[in-house]
Amino acid sequence: MSATWNTLCLFMLCSVGICTSIYAYMVEVTKEKDASYKAMCDISETISCSKVFTSRFGRGFGLIGHIVGRGHWLNQPNSVFGITFYIMQLFIQVFDSGRGVPLQIATSLVANMGSVYLAYILYFILEDFCIVCVSMYIVNALILVVNILRLKQVDVKIAKKVNKKKTN
């Protein structure tokens, strides 16, 4: 995968992630204000995104509120953390020459661990299926793959530079 394709793939994935996260945020905020609100992703009793977003796990991963308090500014909707993650991925991709790839991979790993944790909660605790959530889990996994491929590109470029210096 060329550097251009890598950037394009990451841009598309992060764009999907940002849009999906914004939608999740809007659903959560609207549902909190209007209990009768029915989101497009609320298909049935067991396939409901608003049920998930407004659960105790929909903010701060269900953990931050216990640590710093429910009203603390760090206890944001999970979608806010998602938007931050996707913007950070794009920022590093666009403004970095390759040294930020390990940070992209590290944050992608954290995001994927969060996805596994939230998927467990979704299926086993909430006993629900959230199309929006699962979409974000897939986007996070694909971003990790793209970042790993970018790391391989950077490693090849570094190896070529080292070999070029050795031959001179």
Strand and helix layout:
Elements: H1 3-33, H2 49-53, H3 64-68, H4 78-95, H5 101-125, H6 131-167
Helix pairs in contact: 1-4, 1-6, 4-5, 5-6
Task: State the main characteristics.
168 residues; mainly alpha; elongated
Description:
- The chain is mainly alpha-helical and 168 residues long.
- The chain has 6 helices and no strands.
- The chain is elongated, with a radius of gyration of 19 Å.
Number of helices: 6
Major β-sheet, in short? none
Q: Give the distance, in angstroms, between the N- and C-terminal Cα atoms.
A: 29 Å
The total of beta strands comes to 0
Global geometry = elongated
Structural class: mainly alpha
Please indicate the percent range of residues in DSSP E strands (runs of 2 or more): under 5%
Which spans of ≥5 residues are poorly predicted at pLDDT below 50? none
User: What level of helicity do the residues show?
Assistant: over 70%
Task: Give average pLDDT, whole number.
Answer: 92
Element-level helix/strand string: HHHHHH
